[in-house]
């Protein structure tokens, strides 16, 4: 089995969990933030979704230089939930196909994330996929769950049941 074949079931499960959480994000509450230091809902939901697109880049380009005209990332802010979900689904489909096409050797290639020319992290493509994408998406998805709870919205089950789903 290739590494991509081993990672694919986990990716599909994590995309399904993220999809469930994004589906519960309410329209019309975009400015909600639980604390002045917290991202507003519009940015947190958008960032959680856009990470899927970033993962495709981690697997296909040698580096990203954030905050420059060459930055290839698509930055999302939630307007309407339906539009955010459409963007998420398109990026998720591209990521699944990209992962399937990624060779074991490609996972060992160097990947660098920069911010305006300064190195943020230098790792392998595998390291970028795990840390900059998968762990990062799970982290922000959990934050969204807290936002949903604080807004009185349903929190879907992601790892075992939630209080809202028996």
TrEMBL record:
Keywords: Metal-binding
One family name in Pfam for this protein: DinB
Annotated positions binding a divalent metal cation: 47, 136, 140
GO molecular function: metal ion binding
Alphabetized InterPro entries for the sequence: DinB, DinB/YfiT-like
Similarity remark: Belongs to the DinB family.
Name under which the protein is recorded: DinB family protein
Species assigned in the record: Granulicella sibirica
Species classification: Bacteria, Pseudomonadati, Acidobacteriota, Terriglobia, Terriglobales
């Amino acid at each position: 089995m290739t590494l991509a074949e081993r990672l694919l079931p986990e990716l599909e499960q994590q995309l399904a969990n993220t999809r469930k959480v994004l589906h519960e994000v309410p329209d019309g509450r975009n400015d909600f933030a639980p604390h002045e230091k917290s991202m507003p809902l519009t940015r947190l939901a958008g960032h959680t979704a856009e990470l899927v697109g970033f993962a495709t880049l981690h697997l296909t380009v040698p580096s990203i230089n954030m905050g420059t005209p060459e930055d290839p990332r698509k930055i999302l802010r939630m307007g309407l939930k339906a539009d955010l979900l459409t963007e998420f689904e398109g990026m998720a489909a591209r990521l699944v196909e990209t992962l399937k096409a990624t060779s074991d050797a490609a996972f060992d290639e160097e990947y660098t994330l920069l911010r305006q020319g300064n190195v943020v992290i230098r790792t392998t493509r595998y390291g970028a996929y795990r840390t900059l994408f998968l762990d990062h998406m799970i982290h922000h998805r959990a934050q969204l769950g807290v936002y949903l709870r604080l807004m009185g919205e349903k929190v879907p089950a992601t790892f075992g049941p939630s209080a809202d789903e028996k």
